[in-house]
């Protein structure tokens, strides 16, 4: 198949109703297309409704086009300030994944002053990740505040240090209760999706 036909096919598949198909496109676009065509296909998936597809599209876009990370960061920083709490939380974690340290002050401000507990709690943990404060994350998990376990595990997954990953693996086996073990197992399955994105 020539590159033009491949680009046309991948553009069509990128709008498939099947999330597995859209996910497949994120993996093959850069392999089968030239840089410009791959970026065009992947941009259409960067706002996908599925978090895994969005994450992989973003990873590929940043590796193909360093200027794309600047645009993505600007969008995420604006999203943090909007009233949609879930979108703001997602934006915070995308900034963490991109290791956007200049956003740390804004994230810390949300952790201090947001009137939305979900946003405040996620911002607090995200700030620890951006600061590289592994010991604080580990200590919080050790305290086993059951309702916040998933958030501490998420922070450790985004931190992605060897110690953080080992801790999640141990927790998946030895957490104090079945639900927390399941949470850790779920996080382990998502490690590839949340690992830090290297920016050129």
Quick gist of this model?
With 200 residues, this protein is mostly helical. Helix content is 76%, strand content 0%.
Shape: globular
In terms of quaternary structure, the protein is: single chain
Largest sheet: none
Order of helices and strands: HHHHHHHHHHHHH
Q: Show unreliable segments.
A: none
Number of helices: 13
Give the integer mean of the pLDDT values.
Answer: 90
Radius of gyration: 18 Å
Number of strands: 0
The separation of the N and C termini measures 31 Å
Please outline the helices and strands.
Elements: H1 3-13, H2 19-32, H3 35-43, H4 51-64, H5 66-80, H6 85-97, H7 104-113, H8 117-131, H9 134-143, H10 149-159, H11 162-174, H12 178-189, H13 191-194
Helix pairs in contact: 1-2, 2-3, 2-4, 3-4, 4-5, 5-6, 6-8, 7-8, 8-10, 9-10, 10-11, 10-12, 11-12
What does this structure look like?
By secondary structure, the chain is mainly α. It has a domain at 1-64. Helices cover 76% and strands 0% of the residues. The chain is built from 13 helices and no strands. The protein has helices at residues 3-13, 19-32, 35-43, 51-64, 66-80, 85-97, 104-113, 117-131, 134-143, 149-159, 162-174, 178-189, 191-194. Helix 1 packs antiparallel against helix 2, helix 2 (19-32) runs antiparallel to helix 3 and helix 8 (117-131) packs parallel to helix 10 (149-159). The model has no long low-confidence stretch (mean pLDDT 90).
